[in-house]
Amino acid sequence: MPSVSERNSLEQATQAYEADIHLAESYLAARGIPLETARTYRLGFVTVANAQPGDTDMIGRLAIPFVTPNGGVIDMRFRDISGEARAKYLSKPGSHTRLFGVGNLLKPSPFVCITEGEMDCIVADGLCGLPSVGVPGASNWQSHYPLLFEERKVFVLCDGDAAGREFGKKIAASVQGATPIFMPDGMDVNEVFLKFGPAEVRRKVGVSE
């Protein structure tokens, strides 16, 4: 867990970046994510003017804070939205692998979904009404995570490719009773949402309107 001073710095950075989220509106709109939804997750955008100490390498990236159930920011990842040939995601030095959206584990729901990545989590949870947590990369599933999903129906929302199928199998083998839900070939949750709408994502999970 970050120290008090580290958490204060993360909160300060989150406030600075979320104030400029409108600068990423075109990217978000292309993914079907309204600014209102982005603000719910406290997404932000890093600029030359607002970059916090140590974050100059993150300029031009979407800032994705990891928020605890009580509202504290304990980590942040940065997503490239330029389309240039550079790393898609960067993390702060010393960051630990964490689940995104852990507050959804406390929702009074009979099920929870696991997505690969923060953006699919935002789409599934915020736009499709499916309480979800995101694993920041298929290789980042940790051995203690299954304890968080005990006595809960779990759906694993998998990309429609070989890596997605392996992701689903890995988590299904780790979490008792977890059911992999595979997206169509070549598509992820966000792409299914964009092409077919939220009802189709819910239908694949087996959740009625």
CATH topology of the largest domain, by name, is Dna Topoisomerase Vi A Subunit, Chain: A, domain 2
What is the multimeric organization of the chains shown? single chain
Average residue-wise pLDDT: 93
**What is the CA–CA distance across the termini?**
38 Å
Structural class label: alpha/beta
CATH architecture of the largest domain: 3-Layer(aba) Sandwich
The percent range for strand residues is 15-25%
- Which stretches are poorly predicted, pLDDT < 50 over at least 5 residues? none
CATH class of the largest domain: Alpha Beta
In a few lines, what is going on in this structure?
It contains seven helices and eight strands; from the N terminus they run αααβββββαββαβαα. The chain is of the alpha/beta class.
If you had to describe this structure to a student in words, what would you say it looks like?
- The protein has 209 residues and is an alpha/beta fold.
- The chain folds into 2 domains: 88 residues, DNA primase DNAg catalytic core, N-terminal domain (Alpha-Beta Complex); 104 residues, Dna Topoisomerase Vi A Subunit, Chain: A, domain 2.
- It is 32% helix and 19% strand.
- The chain contains 7 helices and 8 strands.
- The protein has a 4-stranded antiparallel beta sheet with strand order 1-2-3-4, with helices on one face. A 4-stranded parallel beta sheet has the order 6-5-7-8, with helices on both faces.
- The longest helix is centred in the first third of the chain and has 15 residues.
- It is globular and about 45 Å long.
Structural features:
DNA primase DNAg catalytic core, N-terminal domain, 19% strand, 209 residues, four-stranded antiparallel beta sheet, alpha/beta, 32% helix, 7 helices, globular, four-stranded parallel beta sheet, 2 domains, Dna Topoisomerase Vi A Subunit, Chain: A, domain 2
